[in-house]
Amino acid sequence: MFTLTYEFKLKPTQSQIALFEDWLEQCRRVYNYALAERKDWIKSRSCQINACSLRSEYIIPVETPRPNYFNQCKRLTKAKKKYPELGRVAAQVLQQILKRLEKAFVAMWERKHGFPRFKKTGRMRSFVFPQLGVNPIQKGKIKLPNIGWVKFYQSREIPDSGTVKQAHIVKRASGWYVLLILQWNVSVPQPIPHGEAIGIDVGLTSFIATSNGILVKRPRFFVDAERKLKLLQKRVSRKRIGSNNWKKAQKKVTSLHEYIANCRKDWHRKLSHQICNDVGMVFVEDLNLVGLSRSILGKHCLDAGFGQFFSILQQTCFKRDVYFQKVDSRKTSQICPSCEVETGKKELSVRTHVCSNCGYTADRDVAAAQVVLQRGLAAVGHTVKMLAEVNSLESL
């Protein structure tokens, strides 16, 4: 299966916007109720047998099964009879909300994410149609179940050969968007190692440093807009919560956040295409991005967006038939790329790599990128020559 996502901006009418808002609110209530049900069951099983809790006690029968996606979907059908407002929302949309909650718990158990939290008013910003009808898309229009035809700005052609599997309706500060998931029943071969290779080291002084000596300065999207963001957030705090002026001030804050995110993503895409020019293999570090985001420089690491850049770079490499692979990131700045001697840990203030064994001198980030390149070539089975060997051959 080959899958692509096409994003378009919707042009809903005022009645359709009101319907979207109502659906988001109903989805939020279902999510919070299902989460409270799971949380109560967990707390009822975590209290001591011979003592009662000083704060609260959840008395749930022993034979009650653990709430999961399947039994909560069954209870959702009964809840629609008791709460008619749930009947206005498509059944599969509410089921997808319960599936989203199930994924949050799986991520908590398997990937060490935090415990899922309740969503306050306005925090639910998207819902999913897992199935669409026959021929759901016409020129500039899409037919959504229980809603009807909704216009959108068709900025590019949608391939007729693909099958529209899902439609995500997303609310942002700039309007409503639809994300169409298209699938093709074909097997696309992955790029194979070929051509010239390049190693990339990411950092905060230089966003990327390549193995051939190119340094790209890191743009500070969030830090540069932080002063304006502070001013807008101060205006929000002075408004009465829930008032129209509070909503207008809040929208300015969200618009600025969206503008920062769009600028960062646009820059990442342009840089990824520049990297893929005239190369056949790209190797990057396999970094612990969660650990970096929780470090003392976490704000700057999140502003740089290393994870998003790696994801975009991988997509660009796939589209342009360039081989992409992550390699071990341990001690890339402590090993000399010329003689492979470990030079020891360097302080962040030391920006130059100087090898005491062979005398090789280079920019610290460039030397790390060259180590990444050597590890990548070794991983794909290519013969790796040290820089000292290359220099000796060139002198001859």
Which bin fits the share of residues in helices?
40-55%
Strand order of the largest sheet: 2-6-7-1-5-4-3
Helix and strand succession? EHHHEEEEEEEEEHHHEHHHEEEHH
Biggest sheet overview: 7 strands, antiparallel
Whole-number mean pLDDT: 89
First-to-last CA distance: 52 Å
Figure out the total of helices: 11
Overall geometric form: globular
The counted number of beta strands is 14
Low-confidence stretches: none
What structural class do helix, strand and pairing data support?
alpha+beta
CA-based gyration radius: 26 Å
What share of the residues does DSSP label as strand, in percent? Answer: 15-25%
What is shown here, in short?
The protein is α+β, with helices and mostly antiparallel strands and 396 residues long. It has helices at residues 14-46, 69-82, 91-110, 221-224, 226-237, 244-275, 289-293, 298-304, 306-319, 364-379, 387-395, and strands at 2-11, 126-129, 137-138, 141-144, 148-153, 163-172, 175-184, 197-202, 206-210, 215-217, 281-286, 323-328, 352-354, 361-363.
Overview of this protein structure:
The chain is of the alpha+beta class. Helix content is 42%, strand content 20%. Strand 6 (163-172) and strand 7 (175-184) form a beta hairpin. The model has no long low-confidence stretch (mean pLDDT 89).
